[in-house]
Amino acid sequence: MKNKPTSSQHFRRFVLGAVSAAAMMAGTLASAQEPVQPIKAHRVTEPAKVELGKKLFFDPRLSRSGFISCNSCHNLSMGGSDNIRTSIGDKWQKGPINSPTVLNSSLNLAQFWDGRAKNLREQAGGPIANPGEMAFTHDLAVDMLRSIPQYVAEFKSVFGSNKLTIEEVTAAIAAFEETLVTPHARFDRWLEGDTKAISAQELRGYQLFKNSGCVACHNGVNFGGASFQKMGLVEPYKTDNPAEGRAAVTGNDAERFSFKVPTLRNVELTYPYFHDGAADTLAQAVDTMGRIQLGKKFSKSENADIVAFLKTLTGEQPKLVLPILPPSSDATRRPQPFE
Ligand code: HEC
Ligand code: HEC
């Protein structure tokens, strides 16, 4: 066993490999030499579909109680998350896992902490029918929409058919979610060549982030979202949360406790952190990551530098006009918040 490299040695090689591969891609732009890239603003090609998706995202009538909308747990006034450890669902049920942000989620390789939905369309049907979240059914959701003449007309003009199906509902929600990207973060401006966009401390933080190996997992345009990685690579992560991670999807025991690497964009807004929501502050999250993923104990000032850098990843938040929802008709099923 003596010659067998430990997982942390393996990992260091992997980090060095990733960093030098990035360096080899050096081009003319400063950012071409970096393992992370700026985000591009989203260009809307189907505005009517996006508008409809926005209404659905904010419509609590897609839940049994008539009280919970997508925005309840992915509050776009709070970084697309709910800022509580685990979400609150139908009848005040305690949710099993922390709500990830919907901001920039279109850039992730898959949806959910364990990646069980391959894209936003597949994802959007889940919460409506999840008994612990919106606790409705797809049929009841579609019936509700069909009972509201303005919705019927809007679906018809967007999709060109009278059917009004759950597939149309999820397609419209996904089209809206694709607009929720957050370009022009100060750090992106730095990547694009504006050397004054970040302070000396923030730059030190980025260098530490890069040189310590955080970028091996948090890389690319979303500073994450591109792979599944073990939580507790060097040292086990202790939690009461029963989530198994990727193994629950693939059945592969080696992927137990592997989770989708979360994006670090807007991370200043999306506390608390980790799938169990156990880290209340960025300082705690950075300390835990250093210890259990890299076997590294950051000093107080190193930790503060990395935290300062992470706060430069807050981008321009989506500018939304609050949608006014069409009223229920006499035929619309009434909400059942207490039964
Ligand atoms: C009761 C709270 C709640 C409601 C309501 C809710 N979500 Fe979520 N959402 C969550 C939680 C918790 C997760 C993580 C679940 C997991 O990974 O197992 C999640 C995950 C997601 C993700 C995946 C993000 C990523 O990076 O993996 C997207 C996208 C999303 N929700 C969109 C929606 C949409 C669209 C709706 C409305 C149709 C909605 N959610 C309703 C709590 C909620
Ligand atoms: C081996 C891959 C890996 C490395 C290296 C790594 N991370 Fe992570 N990071 C993850 C994974 C996976 C998660 C989600 C874990 C979970 O919640 O179970 C995560 C979560 C986070 C979160 C919480 C984000 C959220 O929204 O909940 C922060 C902040 C973070 N990492 C920062 C860092 C920093 C800073 C470093 C370097 C000191 C680092 N990470 C190194 C894989 C990694």
What is the beta-strand fraction?
A: under 5%
What is the ordering of alpha helices and beta strands? HHHEEHHHHHHEHEHH
Structural class: mainly alpha
Q: What is the gyration radius calculated from CA atoms?
A: 22 Å
Q: Give me the count of strands.
A: 4
Largest sheet: 2 strands, antiparallel
- Small molecules (ligands, ions, cofactors) in the structure: heme C
* Fraction of residues in H or I helices: 25-40%
Distance between the termini: 61 Å
How many helices does DSSP assign? 12
Q: What's this model, at a glance?
A:
It is found in: Periplasm. This protein is an all-alpha fold and 339 residues long.
What order do the helices and strands come in, and which of them pair?
Elements lengths: L6 H18 L22 H12 L11 H4 L14 E2 L3 E2 L25 H10 L8 H9 L2 H11 L6 H12 L8 H6 L8 H13 L15 E3 L16 H4 L7 E3 L21 H13 L5 H11 L29
Antiparallel strand pairs: 1-2, 3-4
Helix pairs in contact: 2-7, 4-7, 9-12, 11-12
The structure holds heme C (HEC) (2 copies).
The site of one heme C has 26 residues, from helix 9 and helix 11.
Structure description:
Strand 1 (88-89) and strand 2 form a beta hairpin. Mean pLDDT is 92; it is low at 1-6 and 16-28. The chain has a two-stranded antiparallel sheet. A two-stranded antiparallel ribbon has the order 3-4. With 339 residues, the chain is mostly helical. 39% of the residues are buried. The protein has helices at residues 7-24, 47-58, 70-73, 120-129, 138-146, 149-159, 166-177, 186-191, 200-212, 247-250, 282-294, 300-310, and strands spanning 88-89, 93-94, 228-230, 258-260. The chain binds heme C (2 copies). One heme C binds next to helix 9 and helix 11.
